[in-house]
UniProtKB/TrEMBL annotation:
One of its GO terms (cellular component) is plasma membrane. CDD domains: MFS_MFSD2B (cd17452). Keywords: Cell membrane, Disulfide bond, Endoplasmic reticulum, Lipid transport, Membrane, Symport, Transmembrane, Transmembrane helix, Transport. Belongs to the major facilitator superfamily. This is Major facilitator superfamily domain-containing protein 2B. GO terms for molecular function: sphingolipid transporter activity; symporter activity. The chain crosses the membrane at residues 132-150, 162-189, 201-223, 266-289, 317-337, 357-376, 383-402, 408-428, 449-477, 497-518. Sodium-dependent lysophosphatidylcholine (LPC) symporter, which plays an essential role for blood-brain barrier formation and function. Specifically expressed in endothelium of the blood-brain barrier of micro-vessels and transports LPC into the brain. Transport of LPC is essential because it constitutes the major mechanism by which docosahexaenoic acid (DHA), an omega-3 fatty acid that is essential for normal brain growth and cognitive function, enters the brain. Transports LPC carrying long-chain fatty acids such LPC oleate and LPC palmitate with a minimum acyl chain length of 14 carbons. It is found in: Cell membrane; Endoplasmic reticulum membrane. The keyword Endoplasmic reticulum applies. GO terms for biological process: carbohydrate transport; lysophospholipid transport.
Length: 534
């Protein structure tokens, strides 16, 4: 449950840098006289003029524009995470096996494109508007078009699987072209860790709000597509929920064609609104965020080839540990997200309340982001991860065993705390891993996009597997596409996908995080060591 741009750190030195040199798309230049000064005077390297420090201080406006740029990805991601699965099954009416293939192949394809886009980013040249801004601005219109057609039901029936598979893969490719350069920008907003952490907190707060907006728009607009009002009134007693004696009764409770036409229409309206928000947020980011080369990177830095950078990154222990831990945690969150609407619709009597429960989860997450930012600064990031993410486990299990509306809202508030922590912490900890890598590989540069693209690759691929497997489980349980009620095995499977399976994944991730080597002491040592190098 990601705005701004990312640029590779280019060679520069600690010489006077005027504010004009930091204008948008402009590199800090070094004269030959400056080089001689560096060579013969150590003071020229260690003393930095006051205005250089001021240039690295981020304004609130800059942080907000950076954060707003990441909102559209989360708005669209929230809508797809919560509603794409039930849309494919009940509105587009493709069978569960085909839906599982769309979700898995689409996510896997998006994962594969992450390192590919990262490779091309390392080869990008500086332009008048920067190195990475052209990627994001250029792909945005195509992202909007592909997103809209992902929620469009074509008039033909036989080729719908190919339609959704193609547009989901296209959407994943284009959103990767936006997200990879954006997420890596964190390293180049400032050389100060506190400034980067502050910008990350802004980003996560706005992204959680974006997730909230996405769920609100999608949920409120399409809520009428998932209500019992459109089902036949016969045989709709609560006794049929998980207790039907035969699938022939359930199959008779099919949705009418008039209702399906209405459902298709409201989903397209929601897609159009979210597409418009995507365009607006990208414009705000373009106008308010400046790409900057790192003015403090040592002059001896040299770019490394992508394949060598890949090998170096994959050998870095702290990166592998962090990625593996949050891989399992993100799989758990993704599993809950994708199956939650189905769970509320078919496993418990909450189908008329699911959109408000989802909003409660996300509102709790948005409100708690500043708290977790304070907590990680006070007690450390590793401690914050353990304290924050464990909250969701007992409460999701409680909802499975006590399917009550009041309990559902209590679970929603507590789960929002964990969602916020799972969103904030990996992106706050990744820059620390990159700093640790720079100290271990002091004469290399251009690896930042590799770190972020590979992290996205692993998490997306794992999420794709979890989505595909969970939808296949529904297929094996006997999910009936387009029915108002589902048989008992489907109800039981949904309870497992919301309760037991996420608990196992989160527990595994936290156990891996125990051996994460970058404690607060290590992080501070790395910070001071990098300051000496710069």
């Amino acid at each position: 449950m990601d705005a701004g741009t990312a640029v590779e750190s280019s060679a520069a030195v600690s010489v006077p840098v005027t504010p004009g040199a930091m204008a948008k798309g402009e590199k800090a230049r070094v004269t030959s006289g400056d080089k001689l000064m560096m060579k013969h005077s150590e003071a020229a390297f260690t003393k930095v003029p006051p205005q250089t420090h001021l240039d690295q201080k981020l304004t609130v406006c800059s942080k907000l524009c950076f954060a707003i740029g990441g909102a559209p990805n989360q708005v669209a991601g929230s809508a797809t995470a919560f509603f794409l699965q039930i849309y494919l099954l009940d509105i587009a009416q493709i069978n569960p096996f085909q839906a599982s293939m769309v979700l898995f192949v689409g996510k896997a394809w998006g994962a594969v494109t992450d390192p590919i886009v990262g490779f091309f980013i390392t080869k990008s040249k500086w332009t008048k508007i920067g190195r990475l801004m052209p990627w994001m601005v250029g792909c945005t219109p195509f992202v909007v078009v592909s997103y809209f057609y992902l929620w469009f039901v074509p008039p033909f029936t036989n080729g719908r699987f190919i339609w959704y598979l193609g547009f989901y893969c296209l959407y994943q490719t284009l959103i990767t072209c936006f997200h990879v350069p954006y997420s890596a920008l964190t390293m180049f907003l400032s050389t100060d860790q506190r400034e980067r952490d502050s910008a990350t907190a802004y980003r996560m707060t706005v992204e959680v709000l974006g997730t909230l907006v996405g769920a609100a728009i999608q949920g409120q607009i399409v809520a009428s597509a998932h209500t019992l009002k459109h089902c036949p009134h016969r045989n709709l007693t609560t006794g049929h929920l998980g207790n039907s004696s035969g699938t022939e009764i359930i199959r008779s409770l099919a949705l009418s064609q008039d209702f399906l036409s209405h459902a298709k229409e409201v989903y397209m309206i929601a897609a159009g609104v979210i597409g418009g928000l995507f365009l607006v947020c990208t414009v705000v980011m373009f106008l308010g965020v400046r790409e900057r080369d790192d003015p403090y990177a040592p002059k001896t830095d040299k770019a490394i080839p992508f394949h060598k950078g890949f090998i170096l990154v994959m050998k870095h222990g702290s990166y592998l540990t962090l990625t593996a831990a949050f891989l399992f945690i993100s799989v758990a969150i993704q599993m809950i997200q994708s199956n939650f609407v189905l769970f509320c619709t078919y496993a418990v009597e909450l189908r008329d309340h699911f959109q408000n429960i989802v909003l409660t989860i996300l509102m709790s997450a948005a409100v708690s982001i500043p708290f977790w930012q304070w907590f990680l600064e006070k007690f450390g990031k590793k401690t914050a991860a353990f304290c924050g993410i464990t909250w969701i486990m007992p409460f999701t299990v409680m909802l499975v065993f006590i399917p009550n509306l009041i309990v559902a809202y209590v679970v929603a508030v507590s789960s929002g705390l964990s969602v916020a922590a799972s969103l904030l912490l990996p992106w706050s900890m990744l820059p620390d891993v990159v700093d640790d890598f720079r100290l271990a590989n002091r004469n290399s540069k251009g690896h930042e996009a590799i770190f972020y693209s590979l992290y996205a690759f692993f998490t997306k691929f794992a999420a794709g597997i979890s989505l595909g497997v969970s939808t296949l489980c529904l297929q094996f349980a006997g999910y009936d596409t387009g029915a108002c009620r589902q048989p008992p095995p489907v109800v039981y499977t949904l309870k497992l996908l919301i309760g037991a399976a996420p608990v196992v994944c989160i527990t595994t991730g936290l156990l891996i995080l125990v051996v994460y080597p970058i404690s607060e002491d290590v992080r501070l040592r790395n910070k001071f060591a990098l300051e000496e190098l710069r």
